[in-house]
Amino acid sequence: MTRRAFHREPEAVRQNDLIAATLDSIAELGLAGATVREVAFRAGVTPGLIRRYFDNKERLVAAAYRSFMTELTANAAAGCGDGPALSRLAGLIRASVTPPVADGRALSIWAAFTGTVNSDPAMAKAHREGYQSFRDLIEKLVCEVMAERGVAASPLQIRQHAIILNALLDGLWIEISMGGDDFSRLDVVRLTLDSVATLLGIEPAEFRE
Q: What is the predicted pLDDT for the residue at 106?
């Protein structure tokens, strides 16, 4: 456990430091262990300073969840790169099933948060926003892939493809992040690309080029 040295920082930087300390606490101690006192200690500040930025622990946790989901989506999107839509979609898929998106720490944080989604409206809102952001990215890429290939698809069909593809990636992300033996013996990137290709009616070999 690392305690950050205190420095006077702009408010946005200080809030980010508190969120980072919250995520570190949750990753190591779970949601119950991420107390205001624990977060303050890790951030190198007083509990009173946390309350200056966040009214209570619930608001701090919701902000941390929103930040966590945004970072996951950004790390996955970074894999897209440039080039044809099919290549960018393949890059997104690769990034989604490999570190730093798919790893044990991310899974621990996600699992701690999801237990509160059905009971805390702020967490439910953060969850919806995170899910929608990633699904919108997938939907945009699927739409571009279809257009690039000259395949006629209605907005509803594209939306359905995006929902199913997102569910596929979610399930694989969980299993890969858990580090099970079954997945350690597989080429998970190729497995995922082949599965998505089948879903979209694309020859798997094209996806791997």
A: 93
Buried b (16+ CB within 10 A) or exposed e, 27-41: beeebeebebebbbb
Q: pTM for the full model?
A: 0.85
C-alpha 133/C-alpha 110 separation (Å) is 16
Exposed (0-12), middle (13-18) or buried (19+): which is 22, by Cβ within 10 Å? buried
User: What pLDDT is attached to residue 6?
Assistant: 46
| Cβ pair 204, 198 in contact under 8 A | yes
Q: Report d(CA 165, CA 163) in Å as an integer.
A: 6
Q: Is 41 helix (H, G, I), strand (E, B) or coil?
A: helix
3-class secondary structure, 8? coil
Side-chain half-sphere CA neighbours of 188 within 13 A: 24
Angle CA(118)–CA(111)–CA(44) in degrees, nearest 5? 105
Q: Tens digit of pLDDT for each residue in 155-173?
A: 999 999 999 999 999 999 9
